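May I ask for an example protein's residues together with how it folds?

___
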Amino acid sequence: MASYVKPSAVRPLRALVAILCLSLTTAALRAEGDALEFEVQVETVLEHDGGDFLWYHPRAASVEGKHGREVFITLQKHLKVSDYYSGLYVMRRPMADGPWSEPVAIPELDWRQENDVTISVADVTPGWHAATRRLLAIGCQVPYSPTGEQIVDGPPRQHQTAYAVYNPDSDSWSAWQILEMPDGQKFNFSRNACSQWLTKSDNTLLVPLYFGRDARGPWSVTVAQCSFDGQKLKYLRHGDELDLNIDRGLVEPSIVANDNRYFLTLRNDKRGYVSVSDDGLRWSPIQPWTFDEGQELGSYNTQQHWLAHSDGLFLVYTRRGAMNDHIFRHRAPLFIAQVDTKGLRVLRATERVLIPERGSELGNFGAAAIDPSQSWVTVSEGVWTDDARRRGAKGATFVARVIWSKPNRLATSLAMPQDK
């Protein structure tokens, strides 16, 4: 029987007092007296700016196949109409350092036609489910008109969370399937899109969703707990429903587990928000992201994502105030900084540029643990103007490797950090 978890009070959060230092090449971060350091290596894996499409939404995951470990990147073609995406492509490399394949279209994950409506699945995040030895790709089903525009006045349940399963033993993908949500109008629109999800120690999944009665918003956020048997993802229950009646509400939530708690970062048109939970279902009231001295972070109307290490929690984000007024929604450069997990604030002294800006936006990115030694942030340049090209943008797809000085004990399950 599906159940709804009612909100409950969350204990007050204690302030954290720390002094942290940042060098040009490493970040020294205190964790119980030990210094966690990291280096960043940025690799260009693709370049395309031919006027016909741009590669978009690259996100990485590790896969344990019959020939050893591989790294997959899922990505799509942005077809030069707002939020108009192709079917799914996949790049692969042996381990973390082998040669990359070219992007390969997956026939099972291509568009499908329903009369004059094109159905695609966009905003995909892949992750490894260790118990079933399957790669699970989760995104959102999107209907398009013949001109490539999203259909927002179609029948209910057109915009839903979709998933596909890769079996490394047979080197094959399933077709897209829909995560079935409870009856009623509440979930007529229900998306996991551009969102980090995680696997709990009991092998169930915590899947963040933004949802509402229709495709126009405003939308709310919740986290659904789901079972997965290697073939089917099944809704079990969902947690608190987080609301914000500002513009389109709350969208594109990402969840992470760290230090025996769960953290949720949320997108809103005006600013980013954060919340914390002891169980991944009951959440504290959301609060705007700020730096530790109280100034607003300045990230708005775009994604933030997590990098979790067993010795520290990090946020990857874009923001205002970085001499980047020429960038659409200030979506470049990409920054990384440590999070004060008690006060839910970004430690300004630890902030550093992860991927520099070259005139193009970098807002649609992914972040994941690849193995205990490194985590990756993956992003493609959104090249929309000649000014961006003059500043150096080439439609590149970047992999920024965050190389840890100590093993990440959260990454033993490969692509998605497990709840410990």
In short: Helices lie at 386-390. Residues 1-33 have pLDDT under 50 and may be disordered. The chain is about 0% helix and 45% strand. Residues 386-390 form the longest helix (5 residues).
